[in-house]
Amino acid sequence: MKIVVLDGYALNPGDLTWKAFEKFGEIEIYDRTSYTNKQEIIERIGQAEVILTNKTPIDEVVLQAVPQVKYIGVLATGYNVVDLAAASRRGILVTNIPSYGTAAVAQFTFALLLEIANQVGLHSMSVHQGVWQNNQDFTYWKTPLMELQGKTIGLIGYGEIAQATAKIAHAFNLKVIYWNHRPKQAQAVWAKQVTLNELYQQADIISLHVPQTDETTKMIDQAAIQQMKTGVILLNTARGGLLDEVAVAAALNKEKIYAAGVDVVSKEPMSKENPLLHAKNCFITPHIAWAPVETRQRLMEIAVDNLRAFLAGEEKNCVNQKL
């Protein structure tokens, strides 16, 4: 059996190993494959029966050209890079990697929030630039600092990552409210379920934890922002397309939104035309909430286990139905 990894660099830039896959057959690894050049994608798949992909798209045109493929393992939770209907029609099993990054993403959500509240990076940089050494007083701060205790955090979505974030928020003595598209009972008495409008109106901090669908795309738009408190903090570690980035940038520049912390944007890699790049008090990181080495190792182990199950005639973390 031949296995091809189309875009392995993001998962494994060299600090992990693909060795566990070698027991299943010959493996060919590409760091990157074009997202748009279908001929390159087809040529690299070649005669492989197993495809592992992170963001390289596998659509009907590609699948039509590689009829021997039996399995596609998506090296991520989101699987919209694969045409599931086309895969199902051809009897191809598609799997994903759920729940591998819950702790890391919850942790990173608070990394963004604490950076906004305390500006550690800014002040460390100023010290290294000599500001403290030349200061007349024993202390100084270059921007207002913020205490989180007693503020209200509103979680949009209440899946595993949001629930992990809620626990951290509770430890910081934040009041926790949440909205979920289907009513979901909280696991703790300190988390209160509210309507989306109530969340917009009550939260001092809003954190996004929903998948991007037709219903959620650009859900944080001008109308939503108008309902929010002036001075709200907005956090997004979910999907960039949840934000109307023009509306969010405008609200930052008008100080309706005090600050935004985003690890994802609508188009990645980020375009130099993205309005968030030039917005006031916008903290942007390059989609790294999922990337601690322990988290990526867990992802790799689940990917191996998914393929092992498939070869044993089982279905594990399957996201489509073979027809």
Automatic annotation (TrEMBL):
Source superkingdom: Bacteria
Keyword list, A-Z: NAD, Oxidoreductase
Ranges for domain D-isomer specific 2-hydroxyacid dehydrogenase NAD-binding: 110-289
Domain D-isomer specific 2-hydroxyacid dehydrogenase catalytic as annotated: residue spans: 17-320
Gene3D superfamilies: NAD(P)-binding Rossmann-like Domain (3.40.50.720)
Family listed: Belongs to the D-isomer specific 2-hydroxyacid dehydrogenase family.
Official protein name in the record: D-2-hydroxyacid dehydrogenase
